[in-house]
Amino acid sequence: MTLLARLFALMSCLVLAVGCANVPEESQPVAVPQQELGQPVNPDVPQPAKDLDALTVVRDFVRASAQPISNNAAARMYLDDAAGKAWTPGKVITIIDDVFATVPAAGADTTANPNEVNVVLRGVSVGSLREDGAFISLRAPVELKLLVRRQSDGQWRVTNPPPNLVMPYSDFTANYVRVQAFFFAQDSNTVVPDLRYVAGKPQSGLAGRVVGLLLAGPSTSLVGAVRNLLPEGANTEGNVTTAPDGALVVPLTGVADQTADVRRLIAAQIVLSMQSVTTNRVRLLSDGAPLVDGHEDWVPSDLPSYTTLASPSADQPGLVTVNGRVRSLGDGSLIAGPAGQSGGYQVASAAQSIDGKQLAVVEFADGRQRLRVGPFGKDAVPVDLAGATMTRPTWRPTATADGSGEVWTVVDGQTVVRTLRTPDGGWVPQVVNADEILQVGAISVLRLSRDGARAAVVAGGQLLVASVVRAQDSVTLRAPRILQGGTLGGVVDVDWLSQDTLVAATTMPSQPVVKIPIDGLRLDPFNISNLTLPVHAITAAPGRSIVVADDGGLWTAADVGEVWRPHPHSFGGNASPFYPG
C-alpha cells in the first residue's frame, strides 16, 4: 500500500442512507461565518433552533461536533433519542474546509417516506486529528450520508451519526488549542516540540490535559525520535489544580526514584509545555514534596536553555554559494580556504555546522559531484561518496566532545546518506532508510531540523516532514507526512524557521514563499512584492531574517506580510544562501 493510501485510510467514514423528500432541493456551499466562532459554550447546552429543515440540521450538527464539552452534548442535540444515547464517536476527527455542501440524496438513495430524508454532506478534508492529538495533513474528498427523520414534535433529527467526528476547520480552531508538548532529543538534552491539539474547554482542565499528553509520551510519528523523561508508570496524584495563591499545582507520583538530574529535566518538560496554556507559576510535586529539592514553584525563566545545540550563535552571519565559491552573508567577502578562494573547490552547494567550526561542501569534480567535510576555512577531507547529483548538505548536531555531528545528503535523488566522523579524522558514509519517502518521489532537498529529531524533505515537488528514528545499527526516516498536499506544490527549497515551523520556496506564482507548521494545518503565503519569480533558494533560522534568492539576487523579510527588502550583498541571480545547520 502506498504512503498516500495509508494516510487516506485514516481519514474518512461513510454512513449508509436511504432517501429524500419534503426538503429544499439543495444547500449551496457556504463559508462558516467567522463572527459565529469562538463563543463561550453554554453549559446548559441549548436546543437547536425550532423548525430547521433537514439540510440545516446536518450542517449545524457538523458544526456542533467541534464542541467536545460534556461528551459532545451540543452535537447530540441534533440526534434523535436513540442515536443520542448510543453514539460513541471514535477518537479520530476529520477536519474539513469551512466551505461544504449539504444536499438531498438522489437516485436509489431517495425514500418515499415523507418523514425521512437522506442528506449528503460533501466537502474536502484538510486532514485528521489522531487519537494522540496530532494533526495529519491530507486533502481528500469527504462524503457523508446521514439519515434525518422527522420526530413526533415535528423537528428533524439525525438518526445515524458518523462513527468519527467531522467538523469545519474554523470551528476546530475555535474549540481546540494547539500546544507544544516537549520531549528530548535522543542523544542530547535539547528539547523537541511535539505539536498537539487538546480541547480548549472547560478551561479549568486545560493544563491537566497537557500533562496527560506528556505522561502518555510523544505522538506516534515521533516515537523513537525523542526521549520522554517521565517514566512509564508516572501519573498525577489527583487533578492538576490552581492553588489559592495562583500557582498551578502538578501533583506527580511515580517519579520519586528518578535521579536529581532526571527530575530537573522532567521539570523542564512540564514547565516548557505549560507555556502554551498558562502564565502562572507551576508548582511541581512528587508524592507531595517538591519534585526538585529546594525548588517548588517554576516559571520558564528558571530553566537553563535547552536549545543551545539547536540554535546558531549570533556571531554566525550565514554564508552564500555563488559562482562556485562560498562567501559571507555578513560582509560579502570570500571565506578563507579552498571553498572560498580561487583555485580551490568548484562548489555546487555547502553547509556550515551549527557551531560554525566546520564546513561540508558538495563540489563538481570529474563530471560528477562529491562530498568533502573539514574545518571551516581549511582543507576538507573527501568522503567516499559521489553521484550525478547531491543535495545541499545538512548537519545533525551531537553532544560529542568535538561537536562533529553528522553530515547528510541525498545522492541522485534516491539514496539518503549520513556521514560519520572516524577516529582518524575521516568521514564514512552510511545509508539511511528512506523507503517511505521515496514512494512519493525523488528527493531534491533534505534539511535536518537543528534538534536532529526531524527532516524536512522535498520529494516529487511536495513538502514532507519525517521523524529521524535511530536504532543500534540503523537510521530510518519514518512516518513522513505530506504537508498541504493538493494545495502546495512545485516546492524547490525548504528550511527550518524554528523547531516547529518551516519556510519553503515554490514555483507557484501566487505563493512563491510560504510559512507552514510542521503538521501542515495551515499555510501562510509571504508578500510577493519586489520578488522576481521564480524563487530558487531559501534559508531561515531562529531569530534571523529569512533570505530568499531569485533571478535578481537576494531578498530578506522578517515574517509573512513584510515587503521583501534587497539584501545588502545581492551577489547576482545564481546565489544560494544558507544559515548554519
Assign an overall shape: globular
Number of DSSP strand runs: 39
- Give start-end ranges of low-pLDDT stretches: 1-41
Decide which structural class fits the backbone: mainly beta
The CA-CA distance between the termini, in Å, is 34 Å
| Share in helix | 10-25%
Walk me through this protein's architecture:
The protein is mainly beta and 581 residues long. The two termini are 34 Å apart. Strands 1, 2, 3, 4, 5, 6 and 7 form a seven-stranded mixed β-sheet that branches. Strands 11, 12, 13, 14, 15 and 16 form a six-stranded mixed β-sheet that branches. The protein is built from eight helices and 39 strands. A hairpin with a 2-residue loop joins strand 20 (358-365) and strand 21 (368-375).
Short synopsis of the structure:
With 581 residues, the chain is mainly β. The protein has 8 helices and 39 strands.
Task: Give short descriptive properties of this protein.
39 strands; seven-stranded mixed sheet; globular; mainly beta; 581 residues; 8 helices; six-stranded mixed sheet; single chain
